[in-house]
Write a structure and sequence with these properties.
- This protein is of the alpha/beta class and 468 residues long.
- Helices cover 27% and strands 23% of the residues.
- It has helices spanning 5-13, 17-24, 29-34, 65-78, 97-113, 127-130, 188-196, 295-310, 322-327, 329-333, 355-364, 413-422, 441-453; strands at 51-58, 86-92, 118-124, 157-161, 178-182, 203-209, 215-218, 224-230, 243-247, 253-258, 263-268, 274-279, 317-320, 345-350, 370-375, 400-405, 428-433, 462-467.
- Strand 16 (400-405), helix 12 (413-422) and strand 17 form a beta-alpha-beta unit.
- It is globular, with a radius of gyration of 27 Å.
- The protein starts with a helix and ends with a strand.
């Protein structure tokens, strides 16, 4: 027998209040307030929630900002909780800093006064209004959090996107463990002050505009570091003079992406086990439409990559984008890289057909156990033979291989043939075909049959073909 709607409602209302609050804490505050219509018991339940989530604010062109302001302000007035674990403000749409700066200051102060532990601010401004001349906006056009945030000693996780800081001295973020900053205004001094005021910081994610600024990351507590440097709208030539310094003896995971630094100095990364290098294409980038570097720049960046590899002596997992792989191509041919015996996992992107470079790259990792090759090319490539000067005794220790490709042409097959021939301990080869409208079932069958016919040095090697 089906239960009536009222009985189902009663069953929901009879849940322990702590469980109901837990469920409601995952919803945007606007939706939570709507639950007051369900039952008298729920009428004021939302006012005691430990999480306030204003993440669904989308400002339309015709919507007055005052509606958003009034809704958030009224919600904060009615809130009667004893502890604020999480406070989220996310706004997207055509608004500028001046229209909401005063209210934003009040909302941040509210979070600080109520000893917030996790604070997320995400502001996606109207790009047309701020970047009308095609340049990165001036810092005055971007919201700056009030200085009271610097004294919020209760905060454990902080995310600031589209939001700058007022930091005249080191903040008192003694409990902070995770910090994400995606801002428009940075300085080396600002970063130094932040790191000095976060003695327990473990995760630091930083996204900055290319501005020829040096970056010095020094921390004894940091375990995970992600740095992304990107180009401004009119900045079509990255600087080769910027320096990245890292001294983090307990750092375990490092990810550097975007625009290259001209020089990297890693004075202490002895605990590093996971490294990802995901740089822009060194020759062309569609958002810029011009060459990045001349021959000197390419050689310099190759040397920078070689230096970074020399500091990866304890690294176990490495990931390289196709652009990063291309940048070290010349150095690989000259055998300038020292072996990294601890690396057991490698993921590498392939853009152009680079068989010789791939062989030399694999030689750097003599104890590699798992290899993932991802075809990141967007254009058909000219088929070429996979010719190398390897001896017949050359063998890899690989046990698992994954290859991801659309197999638009046959240029990926030589990679597969080479690996099957030189991996005597191989247990599994998984091939993922990225399917498109040009892939008919007959074409997929042809790819699978060709893979299964390839000779393999490992009698136990299993070849698996999947479509993605």
């Amino acid at each position: 027998m089906e239960e009536s709607g009222s009985e189902q409602l009663d069953r929901l209302s009879e849940l322990p209040q702590s469980l109901i609050l837990r469920i409601l804490s995952f919803l945007p505050t606007r939706d939570v307030i709507s639950t007051t219509l369900l039952s008298k018991r729920w009428e004021n339940l939302w006012t005691t929630l430990p999480c306030l989530n204003f993440s669904d604010i989308v400002i339309e062109v015709d919507d007055p900002v005052s509606c958003i302001r009034n809704f958030v302000n009224r919600a904060l007035i009615f809130w009667k909780g004893t502890k604020l674990l999480k406070f989220i403000i996310e706004m997207r749409g055509p608004f500028d800093n001046s229209s909401l700066a005063g209210d934003m200051d009040l909302w941040v102060r509210f979070a600080v006064i109520n000893k917030v532990e996790e604070l997320n601010i995400l502001l996606e401004y109207d790009a047309e209004a701020l970047w009308w001349d095609g340049t990165v906006p001036d810092s005055k056009d971007v919201y700056r959090a009030p200085q009271c945030l610097n004294s919020c000693s209760s905060i454990r996780k902080l995310s600031l996107v589209g939001c700058n800081l007022r930091v005249r001295e080191s903040p008192a973020w003694n409990q902070l463990k995770s910090l994400q900053m995606d801002n428009f205004s940075f300085s080396e001094r600002l970063i130094n002050r932040i790191l000095m005021g976060t003695p327990r910081l473990e995760v630091f994610e930083l996204r900055v505009v290319e501005s020829n600024m040096n970056l010095n990351i020094r921390s004894t507590s940091l375990k995970k570091l992600k740095i992304n440097k990107y180009l401004g709208f009119m900045d079509d030539q990255p600087s080769l003079d910027s320096i990245l310094r890292i001294c983090c003896p307990n750092l375990e995971t490092l990810e550097i992406s975007g625009v290259y630094y001209g020089k990297c100095l890693f004075t202490n990364v002895s605990s590093l086990t996971d490294a990802t290098l995901d740089f822009y294409n060194s020759e062309y980038h569609e958002d810029v439409g011009s060459n990045y570097y001349d021959a000197r720049g390419t050689e310099l960046l190759g040397e920078t990559m070689r230096y970074m590899f020399s500091t990866f002596q304890h690294v176990e997992r490495v990931a390289l984008s196709s652009s990063s792989f291309q940048m070290i191509g010349a150095a690989l041919k000259k055998n300038l890289f020292s072996p990294l015996p601890n690396v057991v996992f490698l993921k590498v992107g392939v853009d152009l057909f680079e068989p010789v470079e791939m062989v030399h790259l694999l030689e750097i990792f003599p104890n590699l156990k798992m290899l993932v090759i991802e075809d990141q090319s967007y254009l058909p490539r000219i088929n070429a033979e996979f010719k190398t000067n390897l001896t017949k005794s050359f063998m890899l220790q690989l046990k698992i291989i994954e290859i991801i490709s659309d197999f638009y042409n046959s240029s990926m097959f030589p990679y597969v043939e080479f690996l099957l021939k030189h991996c005597s301990m191989l247990e599994k080869l998984v091939v993922w075909a990225k399917c498109s409208t040009s892939h008919s079932p007959v074409r997929l069958l042809e790819i699978a049959e060709r893979l299964l016919r390839m000779p393999r040095s490992s009698p136990n090697a299993e070849v698996i073909f999947n479509k993605k």
